[in-house]
Amino acid sequence: MLEVAGLCAGYGHVRVLEDVSLSVGEGECVTVIGANGSGKSTLLKTLGGLLRPSAGRVALEGADVTGTPAEKLVRRGVALVPEGRRLFGPMSVAENLALGAYSRGKASTAEDLERVHTLFPVLAERASQPAATLSGGEQQMLAIGRALMSRPRLLLLDEPSLGLAPKVIASIFAVLEELRAAGLTILLVEQDARLALRHADRGYVMRTGRVVLSGRAAELAANDDVRLIYLGGGYGRDTAG
Question: What is the value of pTM for the model shown?
Answer without folding.
Answer: 0.90
